[in-house]
Amino acid sequence: MSERYSRIFSLCNNLYTEGAPIVIKAGALHKDNETSWLIAQLKFQNISQKTVKLVKVELKCFDSVERPIEENVTYEYLDLNEARDSDFGSNRPIRIANTSVRSFSARVTEVGFCDNTIWKNQTDAWNPIPAQNAIQSLISDHETLIGYKNIFGNNANHTIVETKDLWLCTCGSINHTIEQRCHKCNSALTDLKSIDTHLLKKEGAYFLACKACQSSDVNQIKEAITIFERLGDFKDSTAQILNAKDQIANAKQREKERKDTLFLLFELIAIIGIIAVNYLSAPQMFSGYSSLPVLIGFLLVLTGLFFAIKQIVAYLRKKIFDFRFFYSILMFLISTGYAIFVILQL
Ligand SMILES: [Zn+2]
Question: What separation in Å is there between the alpha carbon of 182 and the centre of ligand 1?
């Protein structure tokens, strides 16, 4: 089944005439395939600081060989309440009576604001605002791009454009030349026009290094140190190097403590196992050094005792009294008790 509406013409995007409070963002002519009616659609953007409540437009229509057709079509958008930057109009179709129309040009003739002031226009000179390019067309280096976004915000995705009495910000917002800062992202036009790529690259590298320092991965922190060393005296890179080295030392200490705890756990399980085996085999297994399980158990107990004492001393020095401390105490008591028991059996 075919679509009910066919698009037979599209306007250029972002049409503007100097001083206008709104932009014609898009326009199209559709044909209703069931009734053969023609419907024009326009989409506007309010770029004024005032809320728009009325827009009058005039369409100049042309036939399929671009000859002007009859009288111009006029249309009023009433009961609007459109603040700055809002898009509107596309939900209000304009019926074109003459079915020979195949294209049109559009101009806004009047805009009424919430304070009952009116902007009027008679010019036909509504021309496209030059398109913005992706910021990557200007900045291809990754670190420099990160630095750019770090300074101008994550929405800084476009090159700036200056045209007529407007400038288009890196965030895509439309500002008037009388505005020194973007009304949306607050970036200053002078800053955007005078970017120092060398400085941005440093800014980006610094940002990436700081981010890497938040990782628990020692290798990433080492990479961050390399970047901070490359940055030299940029910002607080020297202090960041010291912090990063502390982080690595702490991470290594944590890893050591983790391994010690695992080793103690292994020791405890082994000792309890040996005690259980010996107990179940009693009394003949406790007849002296010739009993291999007793000897292995005794050696394990001595090893466990050594590590338990080592850990207890370490935790006392650091004043760590969590489960690890009490776990070491338990280990110490079991090891000592078993060692005394075995010695008494010899
Ligand atoms: Zn902006």
Answer: 5
